[in-house]
């Protein structure tokens, strides 16, 4: 089980992060970015799982500038609140804050100094942008939304990135995946996978539309990616 820690942004603002550490340190670091529902109980369990796999993992409160402490449930009410908070976010400011979290993680005594970013849905988009704007060593995006709106930044991608998509995803339709593949799908540092028979959120263990086989395969690829590039 992890713990809540206090993080400090470059402008002095403070916010919460959920931290979990492995048995053996120092270890590579992962900043884990949640779905639109923020760092709720499910995302914290994902953090715990990657710590058990050998990484120091931090998942920040992504809405702290809009309304701190909003960790939302997978309900209609939670979704409505999440979408209102997401709409109020400033993408450029969040990426700066994300860079601060990555720097804090990198400088921890229990971290080797190598840091990757992974994220789901909204966090998947920010993972891609972290790869184009921040000095990280690796990224893993799960069904990242709106990546196609930022393909003009693709040439700035500075790290290997793994992208996992669902085959039946209205939030990330096939046309979006096709656009991503057309722009950078043949690059050596970009690895794109689409999981047949899955929907947006297939990694969400214990909640619909979890797909156990796809989630297990994506996790296998994620661990291989991070172990290859953060070792």
- Structural class by sheet pairing and helices: alpha/beta
The general outline is: globular
SSE pattern, N- to C-terminal: EEEHEHHHEHEEHEH
Number of strands: 8
Largest sheet: 8 strands, mixed
Strand order of the largest sheet: 1-2-4-3-5-6-7-8
Give the C-alpha Rg: 16 Å
Q: What is the rounded distance between the termini?
A: 24 Å
Total discrete domains: 1
Low-confidence stretches: none
Average pLDDT confidence is 98
Q: CATH homologous superfamily?
A: Alpha/Beta hydrolase fold, catalytic domain
Strand residue content: 25-35%
CATH architecture: 3-Layer(aba) Sandwich
CATH fold-type name: Rossmann fold
Under CATH at level 1, the class stands as Alpha Beta
Helix count equals 7
Helical coverage, percent range: 25-40%
């Amino acid at each position: 089980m992890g713990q809540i820690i206090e993080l400090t942004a470059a402008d002095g603002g403070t916010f919460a992060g959920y931290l979990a550490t492995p048995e053996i340190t120092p270890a590579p670091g992962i900043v884990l970015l949640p779905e639109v529902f923020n760092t709720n109980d499910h995302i914290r369990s994902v953090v715990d799982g990657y710590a058990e796999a050998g990484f120091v993992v931090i998942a920040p409160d992504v809405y702290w500038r809009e309304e701190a402490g909003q960790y939302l449930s997978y309900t209609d009410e939670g979704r409505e609140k999440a979408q209102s908070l997401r709409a109020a976010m400033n993408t450029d400011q969040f990426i700066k804050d994300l860079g601060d979290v990555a720097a804090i993680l990198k400088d921890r005594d229990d971290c080797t100094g190598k840091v990757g970013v992974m994220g789901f849905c909204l966090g998947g988009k920010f993972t891609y942008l972290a790869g184009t704007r921040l000095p990280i060593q690796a990224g893993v995006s799960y069904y990242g939304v709106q990546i196609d709106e930022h393909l003009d930044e693709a040439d700035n991608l500075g790290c290997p990135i793994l992208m996992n998509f669902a085959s039946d995803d209205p939030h990330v339709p096939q046309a979006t995946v096709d656009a991503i593949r057309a722009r950078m799908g043949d690059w050596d540092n970009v690895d794109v996978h689409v999981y047949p028979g899955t929907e947006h959120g297939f990694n969400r263990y214990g909640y619909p539309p979890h797909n156990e086989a796809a989630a297990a395969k994506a996790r296998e690829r994620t661990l291989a990616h991070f172990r290859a590039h953060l070792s």
